[in-house]
Amino acid sequence: MSVLDKITQLQEEALERIGKADSLDSLNDIQIAYLGRKGLITSVLKSLKDLPNDQRKEVGASANKARAALDNLIKEKKENFSGGKKLSAFDPTLPGTQTQSGVVHIITQVIEDICNTFHGMGFEIARGPNVETDYYNFEALNFPPDHPARDMQDTMFVEHDRLLRTHTTPVQSRFLETHKPPIKIITPGICFRNEAISTRSHVAFHQVDGFVVDEGVTMADMKGAILAFCKAFFSEDVKLKFRPSFFPFTEPSAEVDISCFLCSGKGCRVCKYAGWLEILGCGMIDPNVLEKAGIDSERYTGYAFGMGVERPAMLKYKINDIRLFFNNDTRFLRQFK
Ligand code: DAH
């Protein structure tokens, strides 16, 4: 058999083996067997010097061609086994691969926004458990057992005496028990009530409570803090209306309406043409609550407030259904990048 025939035979044999190769390892073996230092094609090239002059050129060209062809094919096939990743040098002209990044949930963003605003006013953050005892959720907050005020909060009980907290105000009862004034705290978190799920209410929702206890704290301080927050969070020209209200844990108590920041109080669909939106409850901390926590109510006074997170978020971002926050539809969530 002539050397040229031998080359052709080797090439065909190698091609067949490459075609059947089913792993990177088997391709490496073929590469070594034919193109390695002691490989079959390499040996042909090494033996060129023993050939007569008139054959050397032709055989050399043929062996080199076979080597290049096999080398290319092996490289190409290796790419299939390495998940299409190019094994050759980095090519900056290729299009980049886009990575998908997540989005912080809009409710988390709004909570961060609220917390940052209060943080700038000197408030620190405290948190408490989602499963609460009846004591911290109600009794420490001056709800006597069987008091009708408990009806306002449709409570889900886990077992006797343990419940899913219906508001974030129990963090106040816990914190007051373990800290001494001066105290200036906000308490973001999730709450639960047994409500019918609709466009405006859900069984799970978020609240942020705030409370300040020190000597000489007055209702004027409370109004100033709430106004400063609303200006920073909603809009600089917002107006507030304090309506008398009732909460067992504050006395006196009030509910706060803000002038609708969408229509500046002129009346629109969002504020139901009232010009005002209810956003929070507040008041001076009832002396009973301070005393239960071991704080001298003759010496110290305090104010407290509590607001939902979903309502302001819906107003600020014009979202018309509270359920969207909980459905985890990424098409909705991705809008708030
Ligand atoms: N916890 C009340 C609720 O869920 C809201 C509230 C009102 C919180 C007045 C307060 C407050 O801290 O002082 O309806």
What does this structure look like?
It is a single chain. By secondary structure, this protein is α+β, with helices and mostly antiparallel strands. 37% of the residues lie in helices and 20% in strands. The protein folds into 2 domains: 3-86; 106-336, Bira Bifunctional Protein, Domain 2 (BirA Bifunctional Protein, domain 2), CATH 3.30.930. The protein has helices spanning 3-20, 24-35, 40-46, 53-81, 106-119, 134-137, 170-178, 219-233, 287-292, 310-317, 330-333; strands spanning 124-125, 131-133, 157-159, 162-164, 183-192, 204-214, 240-247, 250-259, 276-285, 301-308. Strands 1-5-6-10-9-8-7 form a 7-stranded mixed β-sheet, with helices on both faces. A 3-stranded antiparallel β-sheet has the order 2-4-3. A hairpin with a 2-residue loop joins strand 3 and strand 4. Helix 1 (3-20) packs antiparallel against helix 2 (24-35) and helix 1 runs parallel beside helix 4. The chain binds 3,4-dihydroxyphenylalanine. 3,4-dihydroxyphenylalanine binds next to strand 9 and strand 10. The site of 3,4-dihydroxyphenylalanine has 11 residues, from strand 9 and strand 10.
